[in-house]
Each structure stands twice: as structure tokens, then as C-alpha cells.
Amino acid sequence: MIYVFPSEEKPIRQGDIFADIPRASVALSELPMVTEEDARIVSWAPIANEGKTIKAILPVTPVNAIVATQDCDTKTSVEITLCEIQPFVQVEGKAKETKSPKKWQSIITQHARINEKWFYLSFFKETGTTEKMGVDFRRTIRVTREDLEEFRNHRKGALNSIAQQHFRERIAQFFRRYAYNEWYSLDAEEFKAYEKDRRCVVEPKYPWQIGE
User: Fold this and answer.
1) What is the pTM assigned to this prediction?
2) Which of 88, 109, 135, 174 could cross-link to 119 by cystine, CB 3.0-4.6 Å?
3) Spatial CA neighbour of 3 closest among 115, 167, 149
4) Along the 212 residues of the chain, how does pLDDT read in single tens digits?
5) 114 and 19, same structural domain?
6) Angle 150-78-30 from CA coordinates, rounded to 5°
7) Phi first, then psi: what are they for 166, rounded to 5°?
């Protein structure tokens, strides 16, 4: 469909899809630090304040990811940035109950224009998935360029020219978008309806939304 399959010797480009990229999880409040004497759980704050370098044990998960770094930098940068690929229902909540082709086409086309946080990827069996996937621009991973070049046997494919151009514009728009609280202009009654629709407490509330 929207994929091509470059040979292993081809250089890394934006839109290349890799399997089994290591994603490390760090908890600043509970960091397993290792010394020559022992291993213990510590908080990162006092270590950072002292400017120390430590050794730590971190959980690492293999994930699918797509190269976000532009082509002009994938050849020379010290590090390359990738964005994690997840099941589409995890990156777009409205897809959880979606079954029919009619509803899918609405999400893939209309909601893609509204929600700038993700990029849709159709079924892609080469990465071992059996469902629709999505690139989550909020979940990034950095890998050294030299390491990723040595890891090209795990490159499972790449976006074709049409999808690659779209991906380039989507990721650029995500990082340059103007961030604002979309509910700021709602009056008190509209804000109540907004909060109810999202099934959570929305903060901050503005004075005109709480009667001040």
C-alpha cells in the first residue's frame, strides 16, 4: 500500500520504519542505582544537584519506530530521532469502538486533519503487527546514527513518496503548532458540557467559567 522496501545498504531516510528499537523507561523518583558495593533505589534530584554521573538499571522495551530526523541530517547527525509506532487505538481514542469501513475512513481522513499528534499507518505485517498502527509524535527515541546504521537489518520498510511527503509535513506541523487551551473561550454552561464530554476535570478553569 503506502510502503516501499529499501535494501539494507540504502542510507537511512526520514520515514524508515524499524522494528525492535530499544525504549528505556526512567522514573526520576525511583531510580535503581548500581555501585560497586550494592544496588539501591534512589531519587534523581539529589544526584542531579550534585552533578554526579551514576550507573543505573533501566527497563528496556523493544518497540517499532519511524525515523523523524530529516534526510539532510540522517547522514551526518550524531543522533537520529525516531517516533514510536503503537496500535492505532492507543494513539486515537475514537478508534476503540470503530468497526465499519465508513467510520474508519472518517477517522483516517477527517480526524487526521484535526488531531496533529499522530500519523496513521495502515496494516503493516512486516513489523509483526496484525492491526492498524499510528505514529505517536509525543513518544520520541534517540539513537546514535552509527548504531542505527549498523541496525539496518531491522529496517522493515519505509514510507513511499506520497506518504513520506505527508509524514514530513505532519511532523513539522506538530512541532511548530501553537499550543493553547481550546476551551478558554467557552462560557460557564459550554465549559460544563465540554468537561462532561471528556469525562475528567479540566484545568485551568477561567474566571468567566466559574462565575468570578
Assistant:
1) 0.83
2) 135
3) 167
4) 799 999 999 999 999 999 999 999 999 999 999 988 888 999 999 999 988 888 999 999 999 999 999 999 999 999 999 999 999 999 988 888 888 888 889 888 887 788 889 999 988 777 677 789 999 999 999 999 999 999 999 999 999 999 999 999 999 999 888 888 999 999 999 999 999 988 889 999 999 998 75
5) yes
6) 90
7) -65, -45
Domains identified in the chain, total number? 2
The SS3 assignment for 120 reads: strand
Shared domain check, 192 and 173: no
- Angle (CA) 51-58-46 rounded to 5° is 25
Asked if residue 77 lies in contact with residue 56, where contact means CB atoms within 8 angstroms, the answer is: no
CA torsion sign for 175, 138, 107, 155 is positive
For cell 519505509, what's the residue?
A: 158
